[in-house]
Amino acid sequence: IMPYNSTFFPNMLEHYDQDIAAVKMKVLSAEAFVPECTDHTRVLRPCRELCERVLSDCSRDMLTFGISWPSELQCDR
């Protein structure tokens, strides 16, 4: 949760609304940090394809702003 309640669009990444900003990232982060459990014994991790797609989609902007991909979201896990 952000410590503010207002923002502006288009933002620095040229997103014109919140829907464009991070649809796939929301799914990936939810699956990584709040994973589904099955039969109380198995944790379902995000699929590699989704992780690689989000990394690919975000890499240009991450380089622009000097942001590193979080170690918790490494796609080979």
Regions with pLDDT < 50 over 5+ consecutive residues?
A: none
**Based on the structure, what is the oligomeric state of the protein chains?**
single chain
Please tell me what the overall shape is. Answer: globular
Topology order in helix (H) and strand (E) letters: HHEEH
Distance between the termini: 26 Å
Report on this structure:
The protein has 77 residues and is mostly helical. It has a domain at 23-69. Helices cover 43% and strands 8% of the residues. The protein has helices spanning 18-21, 23-33, 48-65, and strands at 36-38, 42-44. It has a two-stranded antiparallel sheet with strand order 1-2. Strand 1 (36-38) and strand 2 form a beta hairpin. The longest helix is centred in the last third of the chain and has 18 residues, at 48-65. The protein is globular. The mean pLDDT is 81. It comes from Sinocyclocheilus anshuiensis. Residues 33-77 form the FZ domain. Its main location: membrane. It is a multi-pass membrane protein. GO terms for molecular function: G protein-coupled receptor activity; Wnt receptor activity; Wnt-protein binding.
